[in-house]
Amino acid sequence: MNFSEVFKLSGLLCKFSPDGKYLASCVQYRLVVRDVHTLQILHLYTCLDQIQHIEWSADSLFILCAMYKRGQVQVWSLEQPEWHCRIDEGSAGLVASCWSPDGRHILNTTEFHLRITVWSLCTKSVSYIKYPKACQQGVSFTRDGRYMALAERRDCQDHVSVFVCSDWQLLRHFDTETQDLAGIEWAPNGCVLAVWDTCLEYKVLLYSLDGRLLSAYCAYEWSLGVKSVAWSPSSQFLAIGSYDGKVVYKEAEKTPRLAPGRLAFPPPRAAAGVASPAETKYEIASVPVSLQTLKPVADRANPKIGIGALAFSPDSYFLATRSDSVPNAVWIWDIQKLRLFVVLEQLSPVRSFQWDPQQPRLAICTGGGKVYLWSPAGCVSVQVPGEGDFQVLSLCWHLNGDSLALLSKDHFCLCFLETEDRVGTAFGRPGDHT
Amino acid sequence: MGEWMTVTDPDLSSDSKNICQYTSETKMSPSSLYSQQVLCSSIPLSKNVHSFFSAFCTEENIEQSVSYLDQELTTFGFPSLYEESKGKDTKRELNIVAVLNCMNELLVLQRKNLLAQENVETQNLKLGSDMDHLQNCYAKLKEQLETSRREMIGLQERDRQLQCKNRNLHQLLKNEKDEVQKLQNIIASRATQYNHDMKRKEREYNKLKERLHQLVMNKKDKKIAMEVLNYVGRADGKRGSWRTGKTEARNEDEMYKILLNDYEYRQKQILMENAELKKVLQQMKKEMISLLSPQKQKPRERADDSTGTVISDAEEDAGELSRESMWDLSCETVREQLTNSIRKQWRILKSHVEKLDNQVSKVHLEGFNDEDVISRQDHEQETEKLELEIQQCKEMIKTQQQLLQQQLATACDDDTTSLLRDCYLLEEKERLKEEWSLFREQKKNFEKERRSFTEAAIRLGLERKAFEEERASWLKQQFLNMTTFDHQNSENVKLFSAFSGSSDRDSLTMHSRPRQKKPQNMSNGSPVCTSKLTKSLPASPSTSDFCQTRSCASEHSSVNVLNITPEETKPNQVGRECANQKWSMASRPESQEGCYSGCSLTYTNSHVEKDDLP
User: Fold this and answer.
1) What does the alpha-carbon distance between residue A217 and residue A203 come to, in Å, rounded to a whole number?
2) Which among A253, A183, A271, A164 is positioned nearest to A214, based on CA atoms?
3) Given an 8 Å threshold on Cβ–Cβ distance, is B599 in contact with A426?
4) According to the UniProt entry, where is the signal peptide (chain A) (predicted)?
5) Using an 8 Å Cβ cutoff, are A114 and A133 in contact?
6) How far is the C-alpha of B256 from the C-alpha of B245, rounded, in Å?
7) What is the pLDDT of residues B498-543, one digit of tens each?
8) Which residues pair with B225 in a beta bridge?
């Protein structure tokens, strides 16, 4: 495992291009594009103000830099450095900006969610979508980039509109049976849309692409409901993390009303690894492990309970979860056997974790000077080298899983893992380890 | 004198009376009464005896005192002191004898009285202490009674209080329930009101939003703009199309296409899954049949071979029927048939295994040890291997069959379209030649494989025989050493004996099956294939037919070899091979770990510590 030198960064804005060739990072108002392998600066763009959001277009040809404070978006081209584009939302303000999947349209959400403006880079045309709903996850594109689902609120009733991304034509418009819709997400196959209700009500609805209600799921009533949702890569299963600390693993379409597999958290059955401060290594603990649990503050909004994060491994073999009431631990579940595989307890609260896109390998960061890697074969903790404290706040994997960008408050560095064959032998396949 | 008695007595008499009272209270018996009387009379006598003698009788009043005594004594029932008068006037003489007698009697009486008094006194004392004790007891009991009464009153009071409290609590509960109900109602009403308000607010909010929208958007805001150097082309290179009804319809179509594709894909998957499951079921059934039928016919076969074949033929028919109908019939019927048959077979298998277990427990064969177990596994592996080989052979036969069919098809064409055929004849001939050469080559390979297979089978048979002998000797030895019988050992036997029995049977099936041409197992696929061949090919006098029969014959011959050999096979050597395999398997993780540690070595460059997880 090798580390690159440390580069400057601001606002945790560092992203690999979708084709895996470039790495874009922001320093104040400058956008730096580097080659992933040599890390040499290829382009350097200067924006009008401090950049608050960047996004690569799907074809890796353009980068969008949003300056929400100014209400402006600047777009840069990689092929033609002199090409530029500036979009000003004026007095309407700007709160969110994103690419459409074709990489030729930009969707800007104005302040107060008045409307979504669709700017085209190909023609002068501008389209408006009114009544977008201000919610946790209101826009979702299908994996193939063909359709966009948008949560709307009209006449005190939640609606979902499905647009065709190629010409922004409304394909379907239907109201959902939710009190206060909180999020929508397409299944990876792009045929099923999961819609979940606000945290006050446990409700998950599955809609077909043509707007038919396929199934509704409600685990219980009168308690805080869904906190996080994740589709399995096969589109067959949906994992629902709720405020009661349970993950429901539900078969999405085949037998929607069957009793789903429930993964109960409170008694940790498997062994946990504990990172001790002095030597920073994982220790295997014997089976009854007591985990450090936070007592939630009951009288405040957004209590620290429930399953805050869910992630399937790319081969759908594992599911990693984090319970907000036990912030130091990551649970990894064996999905085929529907049982707990391992619990990783860290020294400090887990900031984020992400699966390697190529193999079942999980990278975890806790805001300390180390990065943790787990695979079925074992786990490692690696000190990020360099003078000073490098506090890893966030991380993201490269497309092919051989490097990892580690982001701290104002620096970032790349971590190069072993080449494929060596990694393969070191980490083995999940089938070997049951 | 009477006066004096009354003077001297009172204190004593009162005393005695007291005592009398005491005693009478304690004990009322006639004897005691009597003793009282005696006591009453005797006490004054004893106490005042001296004064009596000093005062009672003097020189002057002897006469009077004698008469008085006489009188007194006679009243007490003593004989008179005077002699009986003979005449009326004669003065009565004092009878000395009588006096002495009287005195003696009085003395005796006195002594008796004293004794009685003593007794009575001690009794009195005793009774007094008894009395005291009883009084104490009485007092204590009274006290106890008092305290318990008080306690009872206390408890009653408490009970009353508790009941009171309970009543209060009930009341409270009721109140609380009412309160809860009320609150729930309030909550419900509030919720509805809240929802209502929310809706109102949201409407207002929407209105405001609308207004804001108009204000912000309708104003000629010059700022809302996009500056682009030049417009870029679309990612797909196409130009944007106008929005028309056509595009809408196209979009719809596309959407449904996507959905349909998804459903089709899913259906295909499900179908595949179904087919897989069906296959598994079918195979399971076949294996069960093959496992069970020879065991049934085994005893009969020993007695009479012909009956065995008859039975097997019948079963074969049944098996073939189900096999053929399997894929043609509709799903439900097949399912029912299949599940029923499998259930039946399973029951038979279960009962058989149970029976075997019972037998084994009865026999107490303790001669088996680990070696035997390994041999069983090895045997299975060997059979698996053989099955695999047979499968390969089968595939080869299939290809041959295909080739033959192609040939045949051309032959058929001969008859009908003879004219057309002529022009293609040369080409066909060439192709046929090629096919022939290919076929021959394959056949050669096949023969070679078959030969190796039979050789292996022979080797296996020899080894098995050797092992049987070894086992027999070992059994004998064990039997002789029966006295040193270990319980644990017997358990081992129990565990594995059933399998060992079945393994024997397996071997039996192996040699019995080909003889009867019974398509029951994957391993005996070759006869099935041949039968299929005959079926698929119409009876036509051609070279292909000849070839087919030849292949059949060759198969039969090989099968015959097979028949002979496995009877004494014992997979000993194979077992060793498999052990080797196992060893390599076991060693693999190590090697992996080696790699791993190597990796970790490389990791240490950047301060890495790692640990394996279980």
Assistant:
1) 6
2) A253
3) yes
4) none
5) no
6) 17
7) 444 444 444 444 444 444 444 444 444 333 333 333 343 344 434 4
8) A88
What pLDDT does A220 receive? 76
Over residues A397-410, mean pLDDT: 89
Q: Tokens standing for B419?
A: 């004219």
For position A93, what pLDDT does the model report? 85
pTM: 0.55
Which residue in this structure is represented by tokens 């996507």? B258
Closest residue in chain A to residue B221, using alpha carbons only: A90
Candidate from B179-183, B213-217, B452-456 with smallest mean pLDDT: B213-217
CA distance between the termini of chain B: 127
Distances in Å between the Cα of A420 and the Cα atoms of A358, A416, B427, B605 are 10, 11, 52, 19
Residue B202 is nearest to which of A110, A156, A428, comparing CB atoms?
A156
Span A348-361, average pLDDT: 89
DSSP state of B485: -
A252 touches A205 (CB < 8 A): no
What the block records as the tokens of A353 is 């974790």
CA dist., res. A95 & res. A69, Å (int): 9
Question: Inter-chain contact A189–B262, Cβ cutoff 8 Å?
Answer: yes
| Chain A residue numbers touching B222 (CB-CB < 8 A) | 90
- Substitution target in A56, A167, A210 with the highest count of B β-carbons within 10 Å is A167
Closest to B571 measured CA to CA, from B457, B475, B471: B457
**Is the pLDDT at A422 greater than 60, yes or no?**
no
Mean pLDDT, to the nearest integer, of A83-109?
89
- Give the whole-angstrom CA distance, residue B459 versus residue B386: 13
Ramachandran angles phi, psi of A221, nearest 5°: -120, 170
**Chain A residues with CB inside 8 Å of B199's CB?**
156
Please tell me the distance in Å from A287's CA to the nearest CA on chain B.
11
Distance CA A408, CA A384 (A): 11
What is the CB neighbour count within 10 angstroms for residue A273?
24
Question: How many C-beta neighbours within 10 Å does residue B310 have?
Answer: 14
Residue of B221, B233, B256 with shortest CB distance to A122:
B233
3-state SS string over chain A?
CEECCCEECCCCCEEECCCCCEEEEEECCEEEEEECCCCCEEEEEECCCCCCEEEECCCCCEEEEEECCCCEEEEEECCCCCCEEEEECHHHCCCEEEECCCCCEEEEECHHHCEEEEEECCCCCEEEEECECCCCECEEECCCCCEEEEEEEECCEEEEEEEECCCCEEEEEEECCCCCEEEEEECCCCCEEEEEECCCCCCEEEEECCCCEEEEECCCCCCCCEEEEEECCCCCEEEEEECCCEEEEEECCCCCCCCCEEEECCCCCCCEEEECCCCCCEEECCCCCCCCCCCCCCCCCCCCCCEEEEEECCCCCEEEEEECCCCCEEEEEECCCCEEEEEEECCCCCCEEEECCCCCCEEEECCCCEEEEEECCEEEEEECCCCCCCCCCEEEECCCCCEEEEECCCEEEEEECCCHHHHHHHHCCHHHCC
pLDDT digits (tens, 9 = 90+) for A249-290: 665 543 333 333 344 443 333 333 444 333 445 555 555 555
Task: Specify the higher pLDDT residue, B552 or B169.
Answer: B169
Whole-angstrom CA distances from A97 to A73, A136, A163, B21, B555 are 8, 15, 17, 123, 75
Query: Is residue A312 a contact partner of residue A239, using CB atoms and an 8 Å limit?
Result: yes
Contact B232 A169 (CB under 8 A): no
Instruction: Give yes or no for a contact between A238 and A252, defined as CB atoms under 8 angstroms apart.
Output: yes
Q: How far is C-alpha A35 from the chain's CA centre?
A: 24
Specify the long-range contacts of residues B104-112, CB closer than 8 Å, at least 24 apart.
B105/B78, B110/B42, B110/B45, B110/B46, B112/B38
Residue type at position B177: K
Cβ contact (<8 Å) for B608 and A1? yes
